[in-house]
Amino acid sequence: MDSFEFNKIAGAVLGTLLFVVALSIGSGGMFTPAKPAIPGYDLPSAPAEGAGATAPEPVVPLPVLLAKADPASGLKKAAICSTCHSFGKGEASKSTGPNLWGIVGRVHAASKDFDYSEANKAMGAKGEKWTYDEIFDFIKNPKAHMPGTKMTFPGMAKAEDRAAVIAYLRTLSDSPEPLPAVTAEAEPQKQPAPEAPKQPTK
Questions:
Q1: DSSP letters along 47-77, please?
Q2: Contact 182, 64 (CB under 8 A)
């Protein structure tokens, strides 16, 4: 290789290197992010002293919910129950669940044509009844309320919906159970808001 060829190759390599350096400098100037005046990250500050946290929703007692519940709304919400239960007076129980006519105030495991769980039978043997409170808690989460139950329904979380269903079930009777009285003690009680964290003294 003569000196002319060598100079051509060296010049090409040097030119390429200069181009890469110039491109790096140019792109760095165009895309360099702005630096904050004070290095670091902004952290959430504690609430101002004296500013309380948001108060939780008041807990509404069942007597108040039932007093406002609409049986017609409960009928619609109870439509899902018809998959496993019958509702009419004198109707036979289904293989998946007992007939619910007269369920409010009825003794547990009272239907003779349904094979209840042992947990339900044990309550029936003690004479325990399906009270308003019992039904209200049961349909919120059947398996948690009565371990061993055969009920596969996952539950109804909203208290107002459960009250509406119970209001409908109450109508399935020749002599519906009296509604629990709404007393001063049964009025919704607001839970106190948690205290705001105190600021450290300086």
A1: PPTT-PPPPPPPBPPHHHHHHH--HHHHHHH
A2: yes
Q: How far apart are the first and last CA of the chain?
A: 80
Instruction: Quick: pLDDT tens for 138-178.
Output: 999 999 999 999 999 999 999 999 999 999 999 999 999 99
DSSP for 176-202, written as a single string: PPPPPP--GGGS-BPPPPPPPPPPPP-
Please give the Cα distance from 2 to 5 (Å, whole number): 6
User: CA-to-CA distance for 136 and 171, rounded, in angstroms?
Assistant: 16
- This prediction has a pTM of 0.64
Residue with tokens 């509404």: 60
Nearest to 166 by CA among 199, 196, 194, 133: 133
